[in-house]
Fold this protein.
Amino acid sequence: MKNTTIAGGVWPTMITPYKDNKKIDYAGLEKIIEWYIQKGVQGLFAVCQSSEMFCLSLEERTELARFILKTAAGRIPVIASGHISESIKDQVYELEAMADTGVQAVVLVSNRLAGMDESDDVWKRNAETILNKVPVPLGIYECPYPCKRLVAPQLLKWCAETEHFLFLKDTCCDLNQIAKKLEAVRGTGLQIYNANAATLLNSLQMGAAGYCGVMANFHPDFYVWLCRNWSKQPDKAVRIQNVLGLASAIEYQYYPVNAKYHMRLEGINISTESRVKPGDGMTLSKKMEVEQLRNMINEYRELIGCTLRGKC
């Protein structure tokens, strides 16, 4: 095991910029990484669905992770997923390759370990195979593509008791389920990170370790502030939560292309090209919605006195 903990706070699900020829734009990616760090995030979740990992070759996935690690240069930790195959044998090969990049933890996609019609016992057996072959710190990602397989509290407890799993990116969007999961891992080294903006404050109050979601590609400093200060400034936390919950509706618009467009508004010179959606699908009205969201966030930032790195 390389690490025994993962830092609490905000972990953006990183986007992948492309050149016009659909090759990875590493110059643009370097600028995005610096933007995340400037905004005060605690770590980076690389090679995930937001990174378009299902459209990247294994060579591209590992190269991407290595570049992000090198650019972060020890300033913040990097974790990565990137196993997309159907068979466990092929997944082990992919996971070993990702572990060899040196990331702080390798994140397992929950829907890869068993089919939707298969039991948690099948999931456990496949997880044990991975544990034996890839003995590094692990996380779990309830990725919604190609299907969402949520991790039941009892299965999560089993994962925690192996002492290999440090991280769950929870996508259930259900506070009752989150409460049961938090209880299942209480006192263990496995932390839960909420991917759902609308329930974030409530989940932090219940004991969640932080936020790991797509909206950290838009205004991560707001999430940084909320994760750091929700208990110290509860009234302001409610105001921030209200705007974050409403703003998060943009993720259902045209993601991840709209996140790339937002990055451009932030002064990051990248294309809106994507391998999962046509870049020209970002219509004028969609662009205006993103622009208006950014204007609203900036006005709200001034209203409540927020500056970079989560300080308000």
Observations:
- The two ends are 37 Å apart (CA to CA).
- The mean pLDDT is 94.
- The beta strands are 9-10, 44-46, 78-80, 105-109, 138-141, 165-170, 191-194, 210-211.
